[in-house]
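Saturday, quiet lab. Running sequence design on the structure tokens for the scaffold JK sent over.
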């Protein structure tokens, strides 16, 4: 979908409206759009859903699953993006698009900064216990703590790295493995640790 967006001919549309919020990913997307869209365009700050919706809990949903009835509350907040903001955002995109940092977050001033890959490792470890529990459950707890600042695929990657470093233990989740008929591979497989398939979160349990 993102490739299709990048290749779009924005000049062929009567009007372009950018829908994005105030999270780091939204802000970076905004920067990219200012680089790509070579014409005047409008913007809607979807974080306003928190203020205008009758049910504020719905505001936590991403735009892709928000109903039209909820989105209509934002139609009065469509504004033209001024040229000075476009130019500023373009410079931000040129800076970040050249960065080799794979993870980004906000500092205490709200500025976007590069983060180390292991920034959430301690939260993952603190969510573990001496009892076995599904890896997906641990990921869910950590994502709730950090406000879904990253996706579950990144958390999966970090759990696998912690397991490789022997900081957590893993075992097969027999329920899902037996249901799917998955056969554990050889230790040379990057998705296997000590004979345990860790290719998907649902396939294994973890503990301290």
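Result came back. Writing it out in full:
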């Amino acid at each position: 979908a993102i490739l299709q967006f990048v290749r779009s001919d924005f000049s062929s549309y009567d009007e372009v409206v950018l829908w994005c919020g105030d999270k780091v990913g939204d802000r970076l997307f905004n920067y990219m759009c200012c680089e790509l869209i070579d014409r005047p365009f409008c913007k809607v700050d979807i974080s306003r859903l928190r203020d205008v919706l009758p049910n504020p809990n719905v505001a936590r949903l991403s735009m892709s699953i928000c109903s039209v009835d909820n989105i209509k509350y934002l139609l009065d907040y469509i504004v033209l993006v001024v040229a000075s903001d476009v130019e500023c955002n373009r410079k931000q995109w040129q800076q970040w698009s050249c960065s080799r940092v794979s993870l980004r977050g906000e500092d205490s001033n709200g500025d976007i900064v590069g983060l180390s890959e292991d920034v959430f490792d301690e939260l993952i470890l603190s969510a573990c216990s001496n009892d076995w529990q599904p890896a997906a459950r641990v990921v869910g707890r950590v994502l709730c703590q950090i406000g879904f600042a990253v996706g579950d695929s990144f958390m999966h990657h970090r759990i696998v790295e912690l397991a490789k470093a022997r900081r957590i233990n893993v075992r097969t989740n027999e329920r899902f493995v037996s249901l799917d008929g998955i056969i554990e591979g050889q230790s040379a497989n990057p998705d296997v640790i000590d004979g345990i398939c860790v290719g998907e979160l649902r396939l294994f349990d973890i503990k301290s």
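Notes for JK: The chain has a mean pLDDT of 85. The two ends are 39 Å apart (CA to CA). Ask whether to fix the surface positions before the next round.
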